[in-house]
Amino acid sequence: MPIYAYKCSSCGHAEDVMQKISDAVLTTCPKCGAETFGKQLTSAGIALKGSGYYATDFKNSGAKPQSCSAEGGCCPCAGSN
């Protein structure tokens, strides 16, 4: 079941509400009673579970990042002394 972030534009009260997709949108603020309670636009959080996702798509390959040195030439700051 999704969790929706709501906020009242009158009093500023914010609340996360777990509700079904088919449930009606809440409009009455539980704090002040105004009809200005509405959904907020938020990013979706995801969790990849199982053996296939992490091992094949998001696992660190073990390669260490290249270290930057002024003489190594790996970044724009190289040789700018």
From TrEMBL:
Q: Which residues form the Putative regulatory protein FmdB zinc ribbon domain?
A: 1-42
Please name the SMART domains in this protein's record. Answer: CxxC_CXXC_SSSS
Superkingdom to which the source organism belongs:
Bacteria
Supply the Pfam families for this chain. Answer: Zn_ribbon_8
Q: Which InterPro entries match?
A: Regulatory_FmdB_Zinc_ribbon
The name of this protein is Zinc ribbon domain-containing protein
